[in-house]
Amino acid sequence: MGDIAVVGIDCAFPGAAGVQAYWDLLMRGGDGIGPVPGQRWEARDFPAVSGSGGFIDDADVFDSDFFSVTPREAAAMDPHHRLLLPCAWRALEDSGRAPGDLAGTETGVFVGVMGGEWGRLTMSDLARVTPLLGAGSSAGMAANRISYHFNFTGPSLAVDTACSSSLVAVHLAAGSLLTGECDTALAGGVNIVLSPSLGMVYGQLGLAASDGRCKPFSADADGIGRSDGVGLVVLRRLEDALADGQRIYAVLRGSAVNQDGRSNGVIAPNRWSQQRVLDSAYRRAGVTPDRVAFVETHGTGTVLGDAIECAALGAVHGVPRETPCAIGSVKGNLGHTEGAAGIAGLIKTVLALHHRIVPASLFADRENPRLRLGERGMRLLKSPMRLPRGESLAGVSSFGMGGTNAHAVLGSAPRIPLASGARTGGARDARDAVGVFTVSGDTPEALRRNLAAQAEAVARRPRGGAAALCWSSNRIKTGLPHRFAVPVRDTDELVAALRRAAGPQDAAGSGGRPWGRPVVAFLFTGQGSEFPGMTAGLHRDSPAYRRHLADADEALAAHLGTSVRELILSGDERVHRPEFAQPALFAVGYALARTLTALGITPAAVLGHSLGEYAAAVIAGALSLDEAARLVVRRGALMGELPAGGGMIAAGAGPEELAELLAGEHGTVLAALNGPADTVVSGPLEALERIGRALAGRGVRVKPLPVSHAFHSPLMAPAAAGLRTESVRCEPPTVPVASTRHGRMLRHELMDAGYWADQIEEPVLMDTALGALVADVAPTHLIEIGPRGTLLQIAARGGRAAAAELLHPAPGAGATGRELAETVAALYRGGLDPLWEQLYAPGHRVVEALGPYVFSPAQSHWDRQALVHTAPPQPAGPVAVPPVTVPPVAEPAGAGAGDHADDPVLLAVVQAVTEVGGYPPERVVREARFYEDLGFDSVMIMQLKNQVEARLPRVGEVSVQQMLPALRSVGSLAAFLDDMLLARSA
Q: Within 13 Å and on the Cβ side, how many CA atoms surround 393?
């Protein structure tokens, strides 16, 4: 049998809500046994059944809104199904994946569930049977609901072999993985004690513990105590889990299932069958029993069951070995979780192998001497047992009342050597690396709730770098509509940011929901933005930027004969000379843009300011990197050969205001039209000084620009002539280009030698180019691509893109990787799903454990009266579909049904939706979408059609086919019905 990795876990057991709480309960030797809640039944009415057991505190709580389940359907659902859905979500998160990433995949679901109490309780009154109850009470739906809600298309089946159901489910899931039916599997089981009926059966069979506690292998053992429980594990083929870098808790080495056949009785255990299933499992795992360090037994605490199991275990494990085989049973802590018993034992064993310590077995202090454990080569764990270094092996047994036996063999996870530089990011300490921590929720309230939960989870960790935590959050916590993201370097900073965002006064924590992907435009800065050491901090922090800058440097070096990367990073003052400034700025622009596109930030359009057009042309597909590098080096060399002299000034005035001044100064021209009152003048220095003084006298803002020549003026004619003779290999752009040469969008024109020559001496038409870009693509975000903020200030002053968010990943000398991270964070908040791995060094791409998703506790879907059982012999009364308790939800004014009195059609639709879905009227707003927000399915749509026809008889009969296009929202359906009424009236 091939090896199967356990990569994710979630569970809830009595006294242990979650994996960590379960492990804590086991290690401290605690138990979850308590009195029967009145929600289940009145214990005093059933003296034949123990008044104690193991009960999950909040088994009635279900976040139906999260799973798009209507309140009416949630009330009809078997509580087993309601426990499984959030458990599945958290287990998948624990495996290091956002659950939504598996939608549409052949992920398998295998669920052990025993009996069908919910169906018996809710469908006994035939007059009250509904389709929702029919689907809600089916055992098979326990697995199918998970597959449906998560959109999994692999095998999906419920298993009922009584008490061995969940371990048999794990066995079947492993087989499905090994045959290639699925690549990921969820496997486990669930059990809720809904009535005293099975407890009465146990009592009549002499199997019930008087105090409701299982005491496995104890001299005080007197039977079974029943308990709730739910647990799921995520399984992958070991080689796949290793290839994907998933955390591996333990490895399933092999498993086996068999049947007692015709034995002492259909519910009597059979020693020989138990012995055979152990032998078969070890054979399939390729191990011998002497190598097994401990066995998590079935261990119910019945006198006969314990005796038979110990005899079978002794026959297999009583072989020559260095130390006796340790045994224990989690039922001492939890009670008998029946359909979930196998998964409870398996999760305990997986955690023991993961932590390398086996918890003690409760009630072991009074070991039953008649079991002769020592003679049989075994010992009952009276204290925790540490596991030695190297591989450890363990077994898990689970036996069904009807004779179906299962045994699984598990091993510790393989040791994986850390790659060179792992956790340190290579050149930099992990504490200094920046990342983006992400959290998402299905509502603003859910986002705040989970921000607070993540803050507390991170606060419990040792202080240190946060990069790996950020990477993990990007993989796991990004799938829901309301988004939060923050760039951080260490856990202290992260905790503070999360707590601040979770607070009621912080707007960032509200997590605005993006309704689409951001539309991004890149604005490439031109000459004048260069400075020694530009982007050095980003180069230090970003592996992606380092890689792309190296690519540009290599392309340029072939023509320049030296390294611009070294020039840039060394702080060389030569960066101000045109022959070096232009290649250096091109390299920075190209590397920044490629870093962003590698992160999944694809521009809808690009704009380059003068020299910036070269990098823009590469990103747009008009020039190759090598061709652009050749042209930029040639351009810089031609300009560097020009005689010194001339300069440029920026003036806060329009062309009309400057015309008279320019006419009086020979050689001065408009070099750039950046905005309505944002102009650059180029010409001789003395003339510029006179113009500047005149403008200043009028109160106009004037600023000399740090340039070496009078660019974009007739003085550039020799350089333009030199470039015009070049043969340029170019293509029509594949990304729209807003040309600052023409002041409009380029369609299919080539950016050839004539274009680049004209671009040198003609003015930069920034304002009209930006206006054309905004009109063409309507950007939601403008990103400046350059080492210093220039173009975003121009855009803000000109007001051309007032609605766009302005971002700059390298905004000056102090910029590091944080500004790049904030750019990515802002775009994620705006609806982008980045390619997060490009933000991190390989050593930081390590999945770390995060706090599980916290679902809303506000909705109770279990009537505390309808299922209260009365004492026999009175006949049970009819059982209605339990109503749902839904908390009031604040909605905009005018949202309630009472506010639709002036719109009878809308009122009728709201009433129909309320009736079918069970929502309070104030929840059914005009904008509510039937499928996404209200959780309607095809059955409910049929019921909605009938309700609408009954409430609006003048509409007549409406077919579902007619209604379907109108089912976008409550309001769209009302508008459709309004139109039908008008048509029929006419």
A: 17
Tokens coding 123: 């469908």
> For the sheet containing 647-651, what is the strand order?
669-675, 678-683, 647-651, 702-704
The pLDDT value recorded for residue 357 is: 98
Task: Report the C-alpha gap between 450 and 468 in whole angstroms.
Answer: 19
Token digits of residue 930: 């039937």
Token pair for 488: 């951080």
Q: Contact, 531 vs 571, CB < 8 A?
A: no
Torsion over CA of 801, 806, 811 and 815, rounded to 10 degrees?
Answer: -170
d(CA 589, CA 583): 10
CB atoms within 10 A of CB 92: 27
Cβ 645 vs Cβ 685: under 8 Å: yes
Pairing of strands 378-380, 357-358: unpaired
Alpha-carbon distance 604 to 915, whole Å? 46
How many angstroms separate the first and last alpha carbons of the chain? Answer: 73
State the pLDDT confidence band at 886, using cuts at 50, 70 and 90. very low
Q: CA angle at residue 306 from 300 to 311, to 5 degrees?
A: 145
**Cα–Cα dist 425/921, whole Å:** 55
Q: CA 908 to CA 558: how far, in whole Å?
A: 74
From CA 413, how far away is CA 396, in angstroms rounded?
16
Q: Residue 512 has what DSSP assignment?
A: P
Give the three-state DSSP class for 393.
strand
For the chain, percent helix, then strand, then coil, each to nearest 5? Answer: 45, 15, 40
Query: Using one digit for the tens of pLDDT, what is the confidence trace for 515-565?
Result: 889 999 999 999 889 999 999 999 999 999 999 999 999 999 999 999 999
Picking from 30, 222, 19, the residue whose alpha carbon sits closest to that of residue 850 is: 19
Q: Indicate the angle between helix axes 341-355 and 19-27, nearest 10 degrees.
A: 80
Active site residues: 163, 298, 336
* Residue 869 in this model has a pLDDT that exceeds 70: no
Question: Is the pLDDT confidence value at 868 over 80?
Answer: no
204, 541, 637, 676 from 660: Cα distances, Å: 109, 50, 35, 17
Total-model pTM:
0.89
Question: What is d(CA 917, CA 69) in angstroms, rounded to the nearest whole number?
Answer: 9
Q: How many helices (H) and strands (E) does the chain have?
A: 33, 28
Helix axes 904-917, 970-985, angle to 10 degrees: 130
| Separation of alpha carbons 481 and 587, rounded Å | 37
Could you give the CA distance from residue 896 to residue 101 in angstroms, rounded to a whole number?
36
Q: Minimal CA–CA distance to 26: which of 329, 256, 235?
A: 329
C-alpha–C-alpha distance, residues 52 and 37, integer Å: 9
Give the confidence band of 431 by pLDDT, cuts at 50, 70, 90. Answer: low
Of 135-144, 236-245, 796-805, 817-826, the least confident: 135-144
Percent of the chain with pLDDT over 70: 94
Predicted confidence at residue 471, as pLDDT, reads 96
Predicted confidence (pLDDT) per residue in 709-740, tens digit: 899 998 899 999 999 999 999 999 999 999 99
Backbone phi, psi, residue 335, to 5°: 90, -175
Residues ≥6 apart with Cβ < 8 Å to 381: 294, 326, 327, 328, 358, 359, 360, 361, 364
**Span 397-413, mean pLDDT?**
96
> Among candidates 167, 188, 165, 216, which has minimal Cα distance to 333?
216
Average pLDDT over residues 338-350: 97
- Taking residue 983's Cβ as centre, other Cβ atoms within 10 Å add up to 9
Q: Which pLDDT score, from 0 to 100, does residue 382 have?
A: 95
Element (H, E) at 256: strand 250-259
Residue 882 pLDDT > 80, yes or no? Answer: no
Contacts of 616 (CB under 8 A, 6+ apart): 522, 524, 589, 606, 607, 608, 737
Beta bridge partners of 110: 157, 187
pLDDT at 513: 80
